[in-house]
Amino acid sequence: MSPIAHASFPPQEGLIEENLLALSQLRHFVGDLAPEHYRQAFGHHGHHTFGKHVRHIIDHYDALLSGLEADGDVIDYERRRRDELLEQWPQQAAQRLAEIEAALAAAIDRCPSVRLGQAYHAGDRALLLETSLARELAFLTSHTIHHMAILGLLAEQVGIALPEAFGVHPSTLRHWQREAAVPASARSA
C-alpha cells in the first residue's frame, strides 16, 4: 500500500504558511518597484507587465476569499475583479497583498476539510466541482509561484536582482535543502 494512503496531508496551517511566504516575497518585490517599471511592457505584443501578473495573482486570492465569505462557499476564478489600478500602481498592489496575507492568516482556524465548490466554466455552462480549502490553498501556492517565476524572468531582463528563492516552489526549496544536506561524495556514488 502506498505510504500516501496512510500519511495525513499537510495541515492547513502549512498550506497557508506556504501562501504567506510567496505573498510576502511578492509584496516586497512589488513595494520596491517604481510605477514606470511596474507598467513596463514585455513581449512581442507588449501584453506582459509586472503589474498584470501581480494583479492576476491578487485576483485569484480575492476569488478564494470572496468564495469563503459568500453563503454558498463557491469559488469562481473566472469571475475575477481584474482591477486595473492594481496593475498600474505597485503601492496599491502591495497594500492589497498585505490585506490578503492578513485574511489568510485569519483563516488558519477554518477547518481544512470544509467542503467547497469551485465553478469551472466550460463553454456556455459552469460545472460545480467539489473541492476543499486545503486543495485550493495548494493550487494557489502553485499558481502564485508559477507567475512569480515569470516575474523573475522579466526582472532578469531589466537587471532587477531577486533572491534565489523568489518564484521557486516550496517543494523545490525542500529538495534543495535535502541535496545540500547530503555530502557531495554521497551524491556522486
From TrEMBL:
The lineage of its organism: Bacteria, Pseudomonadati, Pseudomonadota, Gammaproteobacteria, Oceanospirillales. InterPro entries: DinB-like, DinB/YfiT-like. Pfam families: DinB_2. Gene3D superfamilies: dinb family like domain. This is DinB family protein. It comes from the Bacteria. Residues 24-150 form the DinB-like domain.
